[in-house]
Amino acid sequence: MVICSNCKKFPSVIELRYSREFLCRRCFSRLFEKRVRKTIRVNHLLNQNDKVAVGLSGGKDSVTLLKILHKLSERAPKSKLIAISVDEGIHGYREKTLKIAKKICKELKVEHYVYTFKKEIGMTLDQMMKKSVAKRSPPACSFCGVFRRKILNEAARELKANKLATGHNLDDEIQVTLMNFIRGDFDRIARMGPEVGIIKDKKFIPRIKPLRECPEREVAIYAILNGFKADGLQCPYAGEALRTTIRDVINEIEEKHPGSKFQMLKTTDRLIEILREQYKTDKKINECKNCGELTSRELCKACGIMKELNLT
Ligand code: SF4
Ligand code: ZN
Ligand code: ZN
């Protein structure tokens, strides 16, 4: 049994190789929560009277985020916290995570709203995939992400939230940076960061990512220590994308060179700053001809896909 390197009292539950520490349950939870509070403070993500909508999938990241924001909201009596889940219609998977989402909202007494692909888009993700596979369209995650972002933004606006918090962790952030880097999509890198978007428009609810400095492994351990039971939940569409390869490569780098993930995030943030300067002057924002959402093209991405699937 290894004793906690910080308090020197309790058995450790985690080894942090990047700082050469073993931490007990209490010291680790404190460190984790402190890191999230620091991300919020340094990036001015929250104000005392915010109405924050948490995008709650029911997975470990969003459940952890809701729990931490709920704790913080107790110190800000004028703020309000609600949760929005999107049911994409992924058979055998989403029903289970929605059950977790519902349960946690009930426990914390947080209002919970569920929006479905079926109602908002006219088709479940499963149905979309049946249609698109024949046409050799991109993997499910590209459809899923585009529609989920659109629905979350519309729902947050409808529910009069002024911030939309998502559970993206450090691994998510650097994986997306590398994917965009490989694709040469600098425009997208410029739109990343702790508060998403270079667009300031009332139609766009700012998306904040309080967990973006927390490694995925630590989010998972924090979630388990706080009663989260994953029970092998895995989206059947996960693992088909370039992202899986990138995740493995980054994990291998971290394994051989602990601390690399934090370094990659720092580099990402420097890159975002540089690119935002450039895109500030270059980019023109339009309203989508079909749905009125903000986009840099004529049709927003969601409407483009819907057209492709004959849904408009
Ligand atoms: Fe959607 Fe892909 Fe996540 Fe599954 S793994 S929920 S398809 S984004
Ligand atoms: Zn300790
Ligand atoms: Zn549109």
CATH topology: Rossmann fold
Q: Give the biggest beta sheet.
A: 6 strands, mixed
Count of distinct strands? 10
Strand order, sheet with most strands:
5-4-3-6-8-7
- Please count the helical segments: 12
Give the strand content: 5-15%
Give the N-terminus to C-terminus distance in angstroms.
Answer: 61 Å
The assigned structural class equals alpha/beta
Protein model, in words:
The chain has helices spanning 25-42, 60-73, 94-108, 117-120, 125-133, 140-158, 170-183, 186-190, 216-225, 242-256, 260-282, 301-308; strands at 12-16, 21-24, 51-55, 80-87, 111-116, 163-165, 195-196, 207-208, 286-287, 294-295. It is an alpha/beta fold and 312 residues long. The chain has one domain (25-281): Rossmann fold (3-Layer(aba) Sandwich). A hairpin with a 6-residue loop joins strand 9 and strand 10 (294-295). 34% of the residues are buried. The mean pLDDT is 90.
